[in-house]
């Protein structure tokens, strides 16, 4: 009899919190966002609750309006190495761009993190959606969507081949014979593509996980196809159960089309919960944060999604639905987020102020205010109704927002048999229930009988 299906839960770390005004709230700690011990404390909180992983977003450009919000500037792979030293089981997932790295150096960074942590690394694969990055790398323009994804496919193929280039038993460590490794089990990859060329072999042995877990967050049509082929975990944003169910079924089907086991692809929507003893108190807490927002900041964020100026609107005027015409034509990640916002406008017909408050919580991810039981009910519903394999938990404020989730919601999920009470493995693959991949260079196993 197989074990019951278990939730995956990650803590998505955004230094002050996922609400855009979190840094202004007295329960957040913006003065500590460059203090490594702050993140180690958060990691220990997540591990004490037996969460699967912590996750960091990143981008190679200053995208935040630093006049009105805190700028999280620490490089995440380096930071996760420090968290690895303060934890023993917690998974460690970092974002890194296929557009602004080269395959060999990125393969080394994540391989090192996986070795240092004993097999807890995950790579969130992004192509970088902002054109602000190009000039930081000496480029005249940001590559277009199709070009970025074409490079990304080659990039992942090359990186995984590098990680595979040492067979698992390549290291002999034969002191008597003076032989450290068998060169016949270490392979050049000779990768030649339209965008990239990488000879190999890699300069480090295969990692404890075989290779770090491959994570992806693009929801565009191209992003979904990419996820179906490569991703082992997918972070996504949905407001409604029905939309999440449609996305879930689509990604699982795309994985099957590539000959993959759909159970080896974990779908993890974002949820940003305001939690209090009563629903009324949770809603008051959400309003408290929304009242700290700076409209100028929110308008800039909204305009970056719509591509249209909304400055002629008064804050208490309804947002015209026409601003979102064509939102269904999803061709890149920015427009996929536009679909989420368009859905809110079409269903709720908010004022500009109301829309800014709706988006302030988690940039289009689902914000939920309620009691611990109500939050657990929502998580269970999505988990059991074909919408999610788990969640990327996005506390509105840090560190208290994570603490209240782990202290009040996680025990309810554990009591319902939906989430572990102890780690049953040591690697991120163990936590996600993913198989360890074989090296492509390893000989096929011999079948007896």
UniProtKB/TrEMBL annotation:
InterPro entries: Diverse_substr_monoxygenases (IPR051260), Luciferase-like_dom (IPR011251), Luciferase-like_sf (IPR036661), NTA_MOA (IPR016215). The keyword Zinc does not apply. GO terms for molecular function: monooxygenase activity. Coiled coil: none annotated. PANTHER family: ALKANESULFONATE MONOOXYGENASE-RELATED, C2H2 FINGER DOMAIN TRANSCRIPTION FACTOR (EUROFUNG)-RELATED. This is Monooxygenase. It comes from the Bacteria. CDD domains: Nitrilotriacetate_monoxgenase. The keyword Flavoprotein applies. Residues 34-387 form the Luciferase-like domain. It comes from Nocardia rhizosphaerihabitans. Keywords: Flavoprotein, FMN, Monooxygenase, Oxidoreductase. Belongs to the NtaA/SnaA/DszA monooxygenase family. It holds the Pfam family Bac_luciferase.
């Amino acid at each position: 009899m197989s074990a019951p299906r278990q939730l995956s839960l990650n803590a998505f770390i955004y230094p002050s919190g996922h609400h855009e005004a979190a840094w202004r709230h007295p329960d957040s700690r913006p003065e500590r966002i460059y203090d490594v011990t702050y993140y180690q404390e958060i990691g220990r909180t997540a591990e004490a609750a037996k969460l699967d992983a912590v996750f960091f977003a990143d981008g190679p450009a200053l995208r935040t309006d630093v006049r009105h919000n805190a700028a999280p500037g620490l490089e995440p792979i380096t930071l996760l190495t420090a968290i690895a030293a303060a934890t023993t089981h917690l998974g460690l997932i970092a974002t890194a761009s296929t557009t602004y790295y080269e395959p060999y150096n990125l393969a080394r960074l994540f391989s090192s993190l996986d070795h240092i942590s004993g097999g807890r690394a995950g790579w969130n694969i992004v192509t970088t959606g902002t054109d602000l990055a190009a000039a930081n790398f000496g480029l005249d323009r940001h590559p277009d969507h199709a070009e970025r994804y074409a490079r990304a496919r080659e990039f992942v193929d090359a990186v995984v081949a590098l990680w595979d280039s040492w067979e698992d038993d390549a290291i002999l460590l034969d002191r008597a014979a003076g032989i450290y490794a068998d060169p016949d089990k270490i392979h050049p990859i000779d990768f030649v593509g339209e965008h990239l060329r990488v000879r190999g072999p890699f300069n480090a042995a295969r990692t404890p996980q075989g290779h770090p877990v491959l994570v992806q967050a693009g929801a565009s049509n191209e992003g979904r196809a990419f996820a179906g082929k490569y991703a082992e975990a997918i972070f996504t944003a949905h407001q409604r159960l029905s939309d999440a169910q449609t996305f879930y079924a689509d990604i699982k089907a795309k994985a099957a089309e590539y000959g993959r086991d759909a159970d080896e692809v974990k779908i993890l929507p974002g949820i940003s919960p305001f939690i209090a003893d009563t629903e009324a108190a949770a809603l008051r807490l959400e309003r408290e944060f929304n009242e700290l927002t700076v409209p100028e900041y929110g308008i800039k964020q909204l305009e970056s999604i719509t591509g249209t100026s909304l400055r002629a609107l008064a804050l208490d005027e309804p947002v015209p639905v026409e601003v979102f015409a064509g939102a269904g034509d999803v061709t890149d990640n920015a427009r996929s987020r536009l679909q989420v916002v368009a859905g809110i406008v079409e269903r709720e017909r908010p004022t500009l102020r109301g829309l800014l408050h709706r988006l302030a919580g988690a940039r289009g991810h689902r914000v939920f205010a309620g009691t611990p039981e109500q939050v657990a009910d929502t998580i269970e519903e999505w988990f059991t109704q074909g919408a999610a394999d788990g969640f990327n938990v996005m506390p509105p404020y840090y560190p208290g927002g994570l603490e209240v989730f782990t202290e009040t919601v996680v025990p309810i999920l554990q009591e319902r048999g939906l989430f572990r009470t102890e780690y049953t493995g040591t690697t991120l693959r163990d936590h996600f229930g993913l198989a360890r991949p074989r090296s492509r260079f390893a000989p096929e196993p011999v079948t007896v009988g």
